[in-house]
Amino acid sequence: MIVGLTGGIASGKSTAVELFSKLDTPFVDADVVAREVVEPGTPALGSIVNRFGEQILTSEGHLNRAALREIIFSDTSHKHWLEQLLHPLIRESMLSQLEAFNAPYVLLVAPLLFENKLETLCAKTVTLDIPEHIQLERACNRDGSSEATIQSIITSQIPRKDRLEKADFILDNSRDEAYLATQVTALHHLLLLQAQL
C-alpha cells in the first residue's frame, strides 16, 4: 500500500519521515528521486545540456539548479520541455523504488503530491499541517530566507484549505515533536490495519 505524505514548506515532513522510519516504515522521497534522475552521466542530464548548453553545469559537472531555474522561469516553453523530459523519469523511478520494498505500506514523500497529481499513485494520503504564521517563522529560521521569499513559495503551493480537503489523514505539527510523534504512532497502527484489508 502506497501512502502519500505531503505538506507545505517547513510543515515538518522530514521530522515526520524520521518518526515513521523509527517505526520501520520505508519511504521514497520525490525530491531525492528528482535529483537522482539528473546525476552526472544520466541521459536526462545529457538532454538538458544539449538544449541549454554547458552553462547549466557546475564546475564538477552537476546540474546547476539555480542557473536552470533562471532559464525555465523566464520562458514557459523551456519549463514545459523540462517537465515533459523529467516527470515521466521521476514517476518511473519512484514506482520502481516503491515496488522494491516488502512492507505493509510505504510512504511516498512529495511536497507537491497534489500539485503533481501523485495522489493517483496512493491508496491513502497524509498532510502535515501547521498554521501559516508558524510555517513562515519556521521556514525563515531554517532557510535564512526573507519572509517575502517564503511567502511566495507558500503562495505557489496548493492552498492549505485545499490540501486539508484532499488529505485522508492530517497530522497537526503546530506543537512539539513529542506531540507529532504520538500522532505518527497512532496513524502508523491504523495504516498497518488498513494495509491488511
Describe the structure.
It catalyses: 3'-dephospho-CoA + ATP = ADP + CoA + H(+). Keywords: ATP-binding, Coenzyme A biosynthesis, Cytoplasm, Kinase, Nucleotide-binding, Transferase. InterPro entries: Depp_CoAkinase (IPR001977), P-loop_NTPase (IPR027417). Pfam families: CoaE (PF01121). This is Dephospho-CoA kinase. This protein is of the alpha/beta class. It has two domains: 1-26 and 105-197, Rossmann fold (3-Layer(aba) Sandwich), CATH 3.40.50; 32-100. It has nine helices and five strands. The protein has a five-stranded parallel sheet, with helices on both faces. The longest helix is centred in the middle third of the chain and has 25 residues, at 76-100. It is globular and about 50 Å long. The mean pLDDT is 93.
If you average the pLDDT, what whole number results? Answer: 93
Tell me the name of the CATH class of the largest domain: Alpha Beta
Give the end-to-end Cα distance, rounded to a whole number of Å: 10 Å
**Largest sheet data:** 5 strands, parallel
Radius of gyration: 18 Å
Principal-axes geometry comes out as globular
Name of the CATH homologous superfamily of the largest domain: P-loop containing nucleotide triphosphate hydrolases
Which consecutive residue ranges, at least 5 long each, have pLDDT under 50?
none
Strand order of the largest sheet: 2-3-1-4-5
The number of domains: 2
Helix content: 55-70%
Could you name the CATH topology of the largest domain? Answer: Rossmann fold
Number of helices: 9
User: Could you tell me the strand content as a percent range?
Assistant: 5-15%
Question: How many E strands?
Answer: 5
